[in-house]
Write a structure and sequence with these properties.
With about 1000 residues, the protein is mainly α. The protein is built from 44 helices and 10 strands. Helix 1 packs parallel to helix 3, helix 24 packs across helix 25 and helix 32 runs antiparallel to helix 33.
Length: about 1000
């Protein structure tokens, strides 16, 4: 008697959970012939998803093999590939082990499995049915099906990269399902005998079976179509076809001693479960033309002939597929699809949501719905998108520029990972499930099945979480693109942007120069590169968005220029296609505002802020100043440093302009934002210039410098066309000669004015010092002591009035405090104004009205100097401040409207009068800003040109073609305000 083989090396830490049991099984007599390859056997078991289960299954199959045992053991001993295939399948699936125990001869099918064509699979199954031996045909179908399924699983579980192998598995499973359905149809027709020949019958695959991406265990969604053969009665033929369909479904789904295949689900047919099981082609067409809902067309996207009469299947597809690619033109199509996805999520049981690989957030449905919606919307004009297979469709969407390459790679990888997880979970017991397991042993097996060897239970959960998170992020961005709804509303001709369609559409949309606009379109969309492809997606929709604004021609031209500047960057068109409302905001901005367009052309990279959720929030002074200082520090020369500061200013003004045009900020916020930008520019530039002057002089300037904001800068009421009214103050350091300090201060101020006022790609920031003591005749810069002397000896009432809005905006904070302490008693006089001073203020105002209004200007329409305009309101408020601020501290503000509110609280102005003044001041400010936005240059009066008035009116919220109404509205508002000014300011009764 031969002694038993000596045990091989220890199998501890080789992936087995129960090493004692494993050692016992390895020593089982059934495996004795494998003793000489024990190490290789253990190594193969170690690579299995579940080494313990694979080893137990191996013993069970060998014991059950009977006459096949010797050949099986020889293959396991001598053929490494055969051993790997058998162990791989057993390590993943206890159900396949059970099948091999029942049919041990099929081990050869696992070993010899290869890629098969659909025809080969069908031929093999039909052969099993034709010669079932002792089995019923439907049981022979089951055995033959499992034979091929075993081969698919064996190839799958031993693939070098199971995730990359996933598409082949999905195709093979769908083809096998189609072959099984063909076999079931054959069984049903054969059972009916001659009667079964009275109809033509076809099975249309839907869902994953139709898309050739089926799971291991899944319902097979189908639609049945039938036609009578020549000379047969249609009603009788449909009755026969219904019996064929019913028997066919039972042949697949009934549980027998040999199990079942899967349920055949015809619920996607017209009228669902309430409708007839089988229809003719004409009946299908009539239903889809008249009654079908949006989801039914989405379902038809994956329709494919699976079994039965192939010619009839082709006739059915020819009838319904054109309607699939017209469905996106239906009213509310995109909204319907989006709502359907939300309903799917809402019906997931709360206890399952976090574990759902298929239906949950970040699951397979997120990928599928995103891809299908993009296909249906863009597939109307692009036949390359007509695929029922998710990964193929996603690749086509990427090739056509509809989805970014990086996003495509992320989605495709995530889809394959999630589907592979789903496959491995189902394979274990061949049960339909889409839930991630929770038990440690199940997670461990699942992780190892994906070749995650180190802490597989934790790694597989992390892998799923990371991919689901990315899927959800991209789903939210792609599935809810505003662009989709807009594209879906276009006719196919409009979406294609053919020259004839484009020319007609440009005229219909109101472009003034359709021929010029068409030339822009041709330049932007010409070519076969990715840039042109994305432009062809964007422009059909953007044309309408441009046309919603006052000047679509200018908007399209600006878009062309920006696109030519940025078209080769990797992010520009991707941002417009993918990022929320970026494309719509850009189109509306360029179609509404020449000013914003000019800013963007000078800083085209600023378009990036349109894709940022926080991009249109105006930045505060310190945040802007920090960026300006950092930019300036990277430049050696003062000119370059200030140019970099002004570039940031340009982008920040664009941010404010877009936010303003979008209605995200109000007039007060616009004034605050533009003031913050101006202050930051002045402060950062002052620092640059001081360093430059000191370097040029070879010594410190020897004096503290201060820039005081006056007028709208001091009042934080800057507009897009506002200059910066300022005073320049300095205070020599101890020991510094006064004259030297004055000269140094003058050098700094002169250079600062030159650099900020120089022509550039941003609007020059004119620093206007005309409100300084002695006006244009006085020195540009004074020391604090000189200001004190002047104000004490020579100050006039108008200068006290000008100081009402004085506020330090840049320079030395301590000097700012000392200057403020100096001027407070002057602008808030302790006794107010006497009668002579009041008359002086009124006389000066009357003279300004008579002398400063430009020649030919309309006194009733001028925003600043006209009747009821800005000057009227501001002088009225300022007179009240000069007269009463000594008694009412709340009047001590540099801002116009807060001061007006304080005057109401103090009982100095009636509430109704204040409302009239506020409305007039706000309307004039809004219209002046809107004029600058629309024309790109200052506008001082209500435009007399109706087109310009319409553009200005739209910006402030009026309906299109409201140019006349705008002028009438402003004149009425200003007239009422002037009546109040006459009473309060001029004292008229």
């Amino acid at each position: 008697m031969t002694p038993p083989a000596r045990p091989g090396p220890s199998i501890s830490r080789r992936g087995f959970d129960d090493t004692r049991r494993a050692e016992s099984l390895l020593a089982d007599p059934a495996l004795a012939p494998l003793a000489e390859v024990r190490d290789d056997l253990v190594a193969d078991l170690t690579r299995a998803a579940d080494p313990d289960s694979a080893l137990l299954g191996l013993v069970r199959v060998v014991e059950a093999a009977g006459d096949e045992a010797e050949a099986l053991l020889v293959a396991l001993r001598d053929d490494a590939a055969a051993r790997a295939r058998i162990i791989g399948a057993m390590g993943v699936s206890t159900a396949l082990v059970d099948h091999l125990v029942a049919h041990p001869e099929q081990w050869r099918d696992a070993v010899d499995a290869r890629e098969m064509t659909p025809e080969e699979r069908t031929e093999a199954l039909l052969a099993e049915i034709a010669d079932p031996g002792d089995l019923e045909p439907q049981d022979a179908l089951r055995v033959g099906y499992r034979r091929q399924l075993l081969g698919i699983a064996a190839r799958d579980t031993t693939a070098e990269d199971p995730v990359e192998f996933l598409p082949q598995v999905g195709r093979a499973l769908a083809d096998l399902a189609g072959s099984a359905l063909e076999g079931a149809v054959r069984i049903a027709i054969d059972e009916l005998g001659d009667e079964g020949q009275t109809c033509r019958f076809a099975v249309i695959g839907m869902g994953k079976a139709g898309g050739r991406e089926l799971n291991y265990v899944s319902d097979v969604d189908v639609i049945f179509v039938a036609e009578p053969v020549e000379g047969a009665d249609e009603a009788a033929a449909l009755d026969v076809a219904t019996r064929v369909a019913t028997r066919m479904m039972h042949a697949c789904s009934d549980a027998t001693a040999h199990g079942s295949l899967w349920p055949v689900d015809p619920a996607l047919r017209p009228e669902g479960k309430q409708g007839p099981l089988v229809r003719t082609v004409a009946s299908h067409r009539a239903y889809y033309e008249r009654w079908a809902k949006t989801w039914e067309f989405q379902a038809l996207l994956k329709a494919r002939h699976l079994a039965g009469d192939a010619t009839l299947g082709a006739e059915y597809l020819a009838a319904v597929q054109p309607m699939v690619w017209e469905a996106a033109s239906r009213e509310d199509f995109v909204d319907d699809v989006q709502a359907m996805r939300r309903r799917v999520e809402e019906h997931i049981p709360a206890a399952e949501a976090a574990r759902q690989l298929k239906l949950g957030p970040g699951g397979l449905r997120d990928v599928e719905f995103s891809v299908q919606l993009l296909q249906l919307v863009h597939g109307r004009t692009d036949e390359s998108l007509h695929s029922g297979t998710t990964l193929d469709a996603l690749a086509a969407l990427s090739a056509g520029g509809y989805v970014g390459r990086a996003d495509t790679a992320v989605l495709a990888d995530a889809y394959k990972v999630l589907r592979t997880l789903e496959h491995r979970i189902q394979l274990h017991r061949l049960r339909r499930t889409h839930l991630m397991p929770t038990a440690e042993a199940d997670l461990r097996r699942l992780g190892r099945a994906l070749h995650l060897w180190d802490q597989p239970d934790k790694q597989v959960v992390q892998l799923r979480t990371e991919h689901s998170r990315e899927v959800r992020r991209l789903h939210q961005r792609l599935f809810y693109r505003p662009l989709l709804s807009a594209v879906a509303k276009l006719s196919p001709d409009e979406a294609r942007l053919t020259p004839d369609a484009a020319r007609a559409r440009l005229s219909a949309l109101g472009y003034r120069d359709p021929a010029g606009a068409l030339r822009h379109l041709e330049v932007l969309t010409d070519g076969v590169n990715r840039t042109a492809a994305i432009q062809r997606q964007l422009l059909p929709v953007m044309l309408e968005w441009f046309a919603e604004m006052a000047d679509p021609d200018a908007g399209l031209l600006a878009f062309r220029k920006v696109s030519e500047e940025l078209g080769t960057t990797h992010w520009y068109l991707r941002l417009l296609r993918d990022e929320g409302e970026a494309a719509q905001i850009l189109a509306h901005t360029l179609g509404a505002s020449r000013f914003a367009g000019d800013l963007l052309l000078a800083s085209p990279e600023a378009v990036q802020m349109l894709g940022d959720a926080d991009g249109l929030r105006p930045r505060e002074r310190e945040e802007i100043l920090k960026r300006m200082r950092a930019a300036a520090s990277r430049r050696d020369e003062a000119d370059a440093a200030v140019a970099s500061i002004r570039a940031i200013r340009r982008a920040e003004i664009f941010r404010v302009a877009v936010a303003d045009l979008q209605g995200r900020i109000n007039l007060e916020q616009v004034g605050d934002a533009l003031t913050d930008i101006s202050e930051a520019v002045i402060q950062a530039s002052l620092e640059v210039v001081v360093r430059a002057v000191e370097a040029d002089r070879g010594a410190p300037v020897g004096t503290d410098l201060l820039i005081v904001g006056m007028g709208r800068l001091g009042g934080s009421e800057m507009g897009y066309s506002s200059d910066a009214d300022v005073l320049y103050v300095h205070e020599p350091h101890e020991g510094t000669d006064d004259q030297a300090a004055q000269e140094a201060a003058l050098a700094v101020v002169g250079e600062l004015r030159r650099l900020l006022g120089a022509p550039g790609s941003d609007p020059p920031l004119g620093l206007d010092a005309d409100l300084r003591p002695e006006g244009k005749s006085g020195p540009m810069v004074r020391s604090l002591a000189s200001y004190a002397t002047y104000y004490e000896r020579w100050s006039e009432t108008w200068e006290a009035q000008a100081l009402l809005r004085a506020r330090p905006v840049a320079g030395d904070p301590g000097l700012g405090e000392r200057f403020t302490a100096l001027i407070d008693p002057i602008r808030w006089p302790a006794e107010g104004l006497d009668a002579t001073q009041v008359r002086e203020v009124r006389r000066l105002k009357a003279r300004m009205e008579a002398e400063r209004l430009p020649r030919g200007a309309d006194r009733k329409a001028h925003f600043k100097l006209g009747m009821g305009g800005l000057s009227d309101v501001e002088w009225t408020v300022q007179l009240l401040q000069l007269e009463h601020a000594h008694d009412h501290e709340e009047l001590r503000t540099t801002r116009t409207l807060p001061a007006l509110g304080a005057a109401v609280e103090a009982g100095l102005v009636g509430g109704e009068d204040a409302v009239v003044l506020r409305e007039a001041w706000s309307m004039a400010s809004l219209l002046r800003n809107a004029g600058m936005l629309f024309r790109g240059r200052p506008v001082d009066s209500v435009p007399s040109n109706l087109r310009e008035a319409d553009g200005v009116g739209r910006i402030v919220g009026m309906a299109p073609q409201s140019g006349l109404a705008l002028a009438e509205s402003y004149r009425r508002t200003a007239r009422h305000a002037r009546q109040v000014v006459d009473r309060i300011f001029y004292g008229e009764v």
